[in-house]
Amino acid sequence: MNPIRxxxxxxxxxxxxxxxxxxxxxxGDACVKPECNTSGNSYFKDIADxxxxxxxxLGLGAVGVSALVIxxxxxxxxxxxxxxxxxxxxxxxxxxxxxxxxxxxxxVDNMSVPEGYDWHAIIRWGDPLFKSSPExxxxxxxxxxxxxxxxxxCDYLDIIADKYSGRTGVLVANHEYSNxxxxxxxxxxxxxxxxxxxxxxxxHGLSVVEIKxxxxxxxWTYVVGGERNRRITASTPFAVTGPAAGxxxxxxxxxxxxxxxxxxxxxxxxxxxxxGTVLSGEENFDQYFQGRxxxxxxxxxxxxxxxxxxxxxxxxxxxxxxxGYENEANRFGWIVEIDPQNPTSTPxxxxxxxxxxxxxxxxxxxxxxxxxxxxxxDSRFEYIYKFVSKNTYRKNDRQHNMSLLNEGDxxxxxxxxxxxxxxxxxxxxxxxxxxxxxxxxxxxLVRNGExxxxxxxxxEVLVYTRLAADKAGATKMDRPEDVExxxxxxxxxxxxxxxxxxxxxxxxxxTEQNPRIANRDGHVLEMTEAGNDATSTRFTWxxxxxxxxxxxxxxxxxxGYPTDKVSPISCPDNLAFDSAGNLWISxxxxxxxIGLSDALHKVSLHGKDRGRVEQFLAVPTGAETCGPVVHDKxxxxxxxxxxxxxxxxxxxxxxxxxDFINSADSVGKGQFYGPRPSVVQVxxxxxxxxxxxxxxxxxxxxxxxxKD
Length: 708
Description:
The chain is mainly beta. The strands form 7 sheets. Strands 15, 16, 18, 19, 20, 21, 23, 24, 25 and 26 form a 10-stranded antiparallel beta sheet that branches. A 6-stranded mixed beta sheet has the order 10-9-14-13-12-11, with no helix packed on it. A hairpin with a 6-residue loop joins strand 23 and strand 24 (492-496).
């Protein structure tokens, strides 16, 4: 692979500030490839005109106040187990007070935060994790060094404070993908291509890093050589659990058991479980494999030509034509689970949750104690899934709870609108009943250990879940990404990032649940399961917001909140909640749609302020906002700043975040002339060191006053 791109397939297809390099390295140019989902599902058009009453169908009343809901903020110290939270009513307000910032130009190469706040980078690509780790040196990289350093392009993030001290904890981050154009000097790459590929493999996966602070309201720094520090890469052994473990569909010449997989790839979002482990979703894994052209591979987007990454030239398992490796791609596309408290534990891949392009997975404990995991398949016209465990959660039994995702039932969502189909012309106009809403059901794919899909065995359903969902008649959605249950209300929120193909010739047009054709800005869906019971197979739904910049886009909708009083928002991606139950939305793609930097927004969900969007921060030029964590009681917000300066190169960077070194000649120890994906903490000044300056080990410069 030539590290300096002269031809990118998405050149001419992106708009505004969206880099074709992001499309290329992150998702393998999915938008210019043939559509994976060619099924002809009905999408309930034939019954939508009946305008079903969701209350009559489901018998729903007010949200039950006894619902058991688990959120990651309940996690405790190493070995401790979080108990379910008994809901006592909706939260009000929120502890994090700020004045919404103005939209930020996509050209600003800095973190932009509210007045009275500052920021610092806790950890950056290449920072050493272990006492044996070398300092980062962009001109002396190696796979061995990267195995011991923080990985590239961090995405999912959690900050898990130890329960008893509150001054120590762990930072867990995914590393979604590598961008060799920006990581390597062109001449060095040409002379060391094989080693560069191995460095890229080591830059994928996850990092677990111990963190500390002086007081509970001080900013976090990371600990080199922390006892829990760990790197998980494309070569780390993973155990396989669930009904498909040992299936012939997972066996290779290197693993004839079908129960041990090397590595994890393209890890996007995730979730922290009630028992303190971290889930991570393997997303655009197709781009790493040279396929054979089978129908199953095509449904997952695998091509038959040489891959651009060229990993099949370095490791034979990435070439599915190589004898014995025909099933290697089937071993990716799963939800993985790691224990951040035990660096010697074996991470696992859970086949019971199905195989597709997982954005992530988040877990809620139902009223009957079942663990329920939600996940979106992040591609155009793909589906929303739910898993319900066979066994039940046990308080203070962490070992048992770590097996809850091994067995259970898998469902896919089917939606019906509440208004006549004739009302949806693709413009995004609100229907005459005043809301985008309707009913839905969870269709079983696997139940009680048996396949519910005719002609498919259980292991076929789990390995080829997209095909099973096609047969079941699931509803195609506009890139379902993060799916998060509220820890306060129990309602489930779905980020639908965008779908520019909706309404194109031969493809489905507007529906009530996806009301715009050429949907560039995306929308957010709110689901209420019958009786607020997470195990229910029935739900109602409504659209919380139809995204965009209301100053120039008349198709936006904010649940009735005045459009002239909201911050513009486009391409919702990751979701999070604060302690009061407010929704926080990070974006991915705003520069290419509304010409503004990607950002993090707070969204009110209740009362007269429902639908109010307030921008909290913006990330540097070329970057995406990922993995938001809101510790509002600590006056802190954390985000992963992914692919800053994407579209630039090693020699000609377009971002200098977060080191801000002015030239290659002035690089100091552990620094980089160019952008470094980083985990950033935004904190209120006066709580900790509010002065601008270097963080731990020189990690980044604070600049909380930039609002340009």
